[in-house]
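> call design_seq(struct)
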C-alpha cells in the first residue's frame, strides 16, 4: 500500500463546512458535476481542492487509470478468480469481442421476448421471477422504479426461501398464465432452486399440463439449466465475467425488459453507457464516481465514519438502499488486499438508508444529534412521479434540501437536548427525471464509485467469498448429521425436535 499517499490524505487539515463555504465563494461550482441528466453536489462534504489533489495522487500511486482501462478492456481484474469483469460491455462499452458477444445475447433475449409477446408460450399475464442476491435485487429495483404505470405483465420477484414470499405471489397469479423465470448464475443456488421446484409444483397442482413449457432460465451455466429440464430455446445465458451484483444489464434484466418493453431496456443501457464514458474520459477533479469515492474514503479513513446512509426522496427508489447494500458491502467489505495482504485500514462503510420523508420521523434524530458521524446522501428527481397537486412533490423536495442544510448549519441552544451541533456532511444527487436513461446512469455511477473505492484501497471488488461459509454450513444443516456449537445445536433441536 502507498503509505506516503495515505499519510498525505490523513494529514489534511479539518475545517467546518460553514468555514469552507465562507472561504470560497466558488465552492459549489468546484464540487458539483452534471452528467447524463444527473446533478451531483458534494459541496456540503468536507472535500477540498487539497483533498482532491491528495486523493488524485493516491489514485495515481494505485494506478487507477491503468486499472480502469483494464476493466473496460476485458483484462483480468478479478484476480482471485482469474476473470475479466465485463458488465460495461453489456451496455456497449468494453472490448470489441465482449461487446459483440453481449449484443448477440441481447438479441437472443429480445427474440424470446418477441415470442412471449406473440403468445408462443400461450397467454402470459404474470411473471414469477425467482432468484437471490444480484439475481433479484437489480430486476426488482428496475421494475419497481420504472414499471408502476406499466400494464404489460404483472411481475413478482421472489428471493426469500420463506414460503410466505411465494404464497403472496400464488394468491395473485393465475398458474396457467404465469411464466416462471429462474435466475441463477450456477443454476445450483439452493434457495432459488427450491423456490423454482415449488412454483412448478403449484402449477402442476392447479392443472397446468406442461409447467416446464412455461420456464425461462437466466444463467451462466446453460448446460445445468438444460439438464434441469428447461428447453434450450428458453435458456438465456450470460457470461462468467458478469458478477451477480453487476448483472442487471445482462439476461438477468429479462423480467424488466419483458415488463417494461425493449425500448425501455435499451434506454437503461444507453444511460449507463453515458456514465461509462464520463467515468472513463473525464479528469478526476470533474469525475462524478471518483469524487464520490474520494468523499467516501475521506470519511472512512480520516474521520473514521463507520456507516454511510442513502435516502431516496422518491417512493419509486425505495429499493435503491437495499440494492446499494449488496453492491457496496459485497464488493468492498474485505479485510485483505488483492494480493492477500491484510488491509490494515477500514474497508467499505456499512451502507444503509431509507425513503424520505418517512425516515425523517424515524432515524434522523441520530443523524442530527447522535454521537455517530454519518455522511448522508440524498437522491431525488426534479420531475414528480405522481399526478397529484404540485404541493406533494414540492414538499418532498424541500424536505430533502432542508435536511441537508440543517445537517450542515446546525442550531445552537444552551439546552443540550435542543442543541444541533451541525457540521454534518451530506451530498445530493438530483435527477432531471426518473426515467430509464437516468436510472441506468445512476446505477452505473454507483458501480464505478465502488470500483474507485476498491482500487484506492487496493482490494478486489469483484469476488465475494464472504457469503460462502454461512451457505455451506446451512447446507450441511439441511442435509443433517452436522454438529455445530452448543447454542446452534440447541436451536435446531428446539425448532425441529
Amino acid at each position: 500500500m502507498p503509505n506516503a499517499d495515505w499519510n498525505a490524505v490523513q494529514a489534511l487539515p479539518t475545517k467546518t463546512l460553514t468555514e469552507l463555504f465562507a472561504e470560497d465563494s466558488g465552492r459549489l461550482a468546484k464540487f458539483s458535476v452534471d452528467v447524463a441528466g444527473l446533478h451531483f453536489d458534494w459541496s456540503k462534504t468536507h472535500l477540498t481542492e487539497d483533498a482532491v489533489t491528495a486523493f488524485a495522487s493516491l489514485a495515481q500511486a494505485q494506478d487507477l487509470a491503468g486499472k480502469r482501462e483494464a476493466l473496460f478492456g476485458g483484462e483480468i481484474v478479478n484476480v482471485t478468480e482469474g476473470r475479466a469483469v465485463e458488465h460495461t460491455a453489456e451496455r456497449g462499452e468494453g472490448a470489441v469481442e465482449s461487446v459483440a458477444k453481449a449484443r448477440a445475447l441481447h438479441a437472443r433475449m429480445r427474440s424470446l421476448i418477441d415470442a412471449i409477446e406473440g403468445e408462443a408460450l400461450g397467454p402470459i399475464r404474470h411473471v414469477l421471477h425467482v432468484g437471490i442476491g444480484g439475481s433479484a435485487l437489480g430486476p426488482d429495483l428496475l421494475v419497481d422504479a420504472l414499471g408502476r404505470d406499466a400494464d404489460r405483465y404483472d411481475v413478482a420477484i421472489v428471493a426469500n426461501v420463506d414460503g410466505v414470499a411465494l404464497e403472496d405471489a400464488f394468491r395473485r397469479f393465475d398458474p396457467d398464465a404465469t411464466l416462471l423465470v429462474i435466475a441463477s448464475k450456477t443454476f445450483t443456488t439452493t434457495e432459488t432452486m427450491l423456490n423454482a421446484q415449488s412454483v412448478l409444483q403449484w402449477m402442476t397442482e392447479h392443472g397446468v399440463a406442461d409447467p416446464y413449457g412455461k420456464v425461462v432460465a437466466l444463467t451462466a451455466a446453460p448446460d445445468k439449466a438444460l439438464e434441469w429440464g428447461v428447453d434450450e430455446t428458453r435458456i438465456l445465458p450470460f457470461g462468467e465475467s458478469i458478477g451477480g451484483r453487476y448483472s442487471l444489464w445482462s439476461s438477468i434484466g429479462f423480467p424488466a425488459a419483458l415488463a417494461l418493453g425493449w425500448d425501455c431496456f435499451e434506454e437503461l443501457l444507453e444511460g449507463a453507457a453515458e456514465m461509462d464514458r464520463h467515468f472513463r474520459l473525464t479528469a478526476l477533479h470533474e469525475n462524478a464516481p471518483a469524487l464520490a469515492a474520494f468523499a467516501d474514503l475521506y470519511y472512512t479513513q480520516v474521520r473514521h465514519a463507520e456507516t454511510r446512509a442513502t435516502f431516496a426522496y422518491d417512493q419509486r427508489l425505495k429499493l435503491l438502499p437495499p440494492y446499494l447494500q449488496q453492491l457496496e458491502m459485497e464488493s468492498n467489505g474485505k479485510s485483505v488486499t488483492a494480493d492477500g495482504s491484510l488491509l490494515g485500514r477500514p474497508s467499505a462503510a456499512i451502507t444503509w438508508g431509507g425513503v424520505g420523508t418517512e425516515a425523517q420521523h424515524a432515524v434522523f434524530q441520530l443523524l442530527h444529534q447522535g454521537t455517530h458521524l454519518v455522511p448522508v446522501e440524498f437522491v431525488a428527481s426534479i420531475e414528480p412521479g405522481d399526478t397529484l397537486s404540485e404541493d406533494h412533490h414540492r414538499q418532498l423536495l424541500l424536505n430533502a434540501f432542508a435536511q441537508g442544510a440543517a445537517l450542515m448549519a446546525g442550531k445552537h441552544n444552551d439546552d443540550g437536548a435542543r442543541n444541533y451541533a451541525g457540521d454534518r456532511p451530506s451530498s445530493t444527487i438530483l435527477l432531471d427525471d426518473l426515467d430509464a436513461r437516468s436510472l441506468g446512469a445512476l446505477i452505473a455511477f454507483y458501480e464505478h464509485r465502488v470500483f474507485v473505492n476498491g482500487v484506492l484501497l487496493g482490494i478486489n471488488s469483484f469476488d465475494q467469498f464472504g457469503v460462502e461459509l454461512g451457505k455451506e454450513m446451512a447446507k450441511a444443516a439441511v442435509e443433517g448429521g452436522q454438529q455445530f456449537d452448543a447454542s446452534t445445536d440447541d436451536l435446531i433441536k428446539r425448532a425441529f425436535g
